[in-house]
Amino acid sequence: MSKPSPTTSVRVTRVTGNQRETATDVVAGEEPMEIRLSIPQEDGVFSRSLSVTMRTPGDDFELAAGFLFTEGVVSAPRDIERIDYTSEGKKDQEGNVVTVSLRRGVQLDPQRLLRHFYVTSSCGVCGKTSLDAVRVVVPHELHRGAPKVSSATVNSLPDTLRKEQSLFARTGGLHAAGLFSPKGTLIALREDVGRHNAVDKLVGEQFLKGGVPLSGSVLQVSGRGGFEIVQKAIVAGIPILSAVGAPSSLAVDLAREFDMSLFGFVRESRFNVYSDAGRLTAE
């Protein structure tokens, strides 16, 4: 059985005025992915399901690693022994169950393993019962005033992001998260039907390479700057978050609390500054 595809072709009826025609359209893939933990213990290996997320297939291992890191389950790449497609110890032929095997001796917070998430593509924190459960321990301090970014650079990020969205160009239905230098150079980009998944894929890639904290970078997202996006960026040590859409009140509070620079409604050569922390320059 083939692995899930990031896109799917479907038959549609196109209506133009009073005329109809049958055609083929390409839509973004959306399938559930279960993230399982395999934890070595003295009397064997303990396995448990930690999360089910609706995602666009692709970069699944990065998504799993990014999720575990931004949720505070693991703190370094060395915590992970391997990642593979397995379910109950058997190879997952469908590619929708990703098992993360932890290294022996990794210290885990039991409270984080007690939670079970069902994460939809639209909401990264659905099902979390309290704010305390969402506020993970932030491992890296964000330093006020560094790095600097100009308003011209911030204004350029959405267009650069859109031009590099290969799957969006084919489907018109995917969010993107792009990691940029303070000068506006694109470092990495990931796409997904879930805005939080796109961020986890991006962070997961950098995490597995040993690139966190991402203290010299800017995160641009194609959607709104919700609480879960701000949270994940702060955990990854990203000091500047720029969003095409609006932030929520909790997102603004969190950004200000941790000295993150948060920009919203970045479009048409203007944007709102919700939290500056001394990083925005006019030039």
Structure commentary:
This protein is 25% helix and 35% strand. It is of the alpha/beta class and 283 residues long. Helix 6 (195-208) runs parallel beside helix 7. The protein has 8 helices and 16 strands. Strand 14 (261-267) and strand 15 form a beta hairpin. The mean pLDDT is 87. It is flat, with a radius of gyration of 20 Å. The N and C termini lie far apart (54 Å). Strands 6-5-7-3-4-8 form a 6-stranded mixed β-sheet, covered by helices on one side. It has a 6-stranded mixed β-sheet with strand order 11-10-12-13-14-15, sandwiched between helices. Strands 1-2 form a two-stranded antiparallel sheet. The chain has helices spanning 60-70, 110-114, 131-134, 151-163, 166-171, 195-208, 227-235, 249-257; strands at residues 7-16, 19-28, 31-41, 44-55, 80-87, 90-91, 97-102, 117-119, 149-150, 175-180, 186-192, 218-221, 240-243, 261-267, 270-275, 280-281.
The helix/strand order is EEEEHEEEHEHEHHEEHEHEHEEE
- The overall pLDDT, averaged over residues, is 87
Number of alpha- plus pi-helical segments: 8
Low-confidence stretches: none
- Indicate the percent of residues in helices: 25-40%
Number of strands: 16
Evaluate the radius of gyration: 20 Å
Strand order of the largest sheet: 6-5-7-3-4-8
CA-CA gap between termini: 54 Å
Which descriptors would you attach to this protein?
283 residues, alpha/beta, six-stranded mixed beta sheet, 8 helices, 35% strand, flat
Helices and strands, with pairings:
Blueprint: E1 7-16, E2 19-28, E3 31-41, E4 44-55, H1 60-70, E5 80-87, E6 90-91, E7 97-102, H2 110-114, E8 117-119, H3 131-134, E9 149-150, H4 151-163, H5 166-171, E10 175-180, E11 186-192, H6 195-208, E12 218-221, H7 227-235, E13 240-243, H8 249-257, E14 261-267, E15 270-275, E16 280-281
Parallel strand pairs: 3-7, 4-8, 9-16, 12-13, 13-14
Antiparallel strand pairs: 1-2, 3-4, 5-6, 5-7, 10-11, 10-12, 14-15
Helix pairs in contact: 1-6, 6-7, 7-8
